[in-house]
Design goal:
It is a single chain. The protein is an all-alpha fold and 141 residues long. The protein has one domain. The protein has eight helices and no strands. The chain has helices at residues 2-11, 15-31, 40-53, 58-75, 83-90, 94-105, 113-123, 127-131. α2 (15-31) packs parallel to α4 and α4 packs parallel to α7 (113-123).
Amino acid sequence: MLEGVLETLENERDGEGVDGLLEALFLILRSSDQKFTRFAAKILATLFSAFVNAEGNESRRAKCLYMVYLCLRSFAWADGTENELVAKCLDDTFSPWMALIVSIFQTNPKSNFEIKRNALRVCRPTVSNRIDPRGADPGLY
């Protein structure tokens, strides 16, 4: 199911269609006990594309960043102990995501607050999330 959502999201350009697919991806990431490390690189690449294609739609961009946070949280437990796994999940998308997040922080601090808040979530892992990747969320995008 996850693979189908990711494939469709990559090709979808209709705004409502993208929103529906992002919601489906959110529900999959949030409600399943499955670890998504096998799909993390694909999820991150797809979300990057959806973020870039959502120019002018700040709500959709904030949702994309929140799901990046959920995806990273699914393998945060491996940071420092299973570096090969972390590298496999991040290799293709780490540099583009970090460049994008830096550019988010360089914009006017009074604009796009939800995007900035979710970018901070991505950059600030918590101990509880490293221990239990399914821990309580601080809030919905």
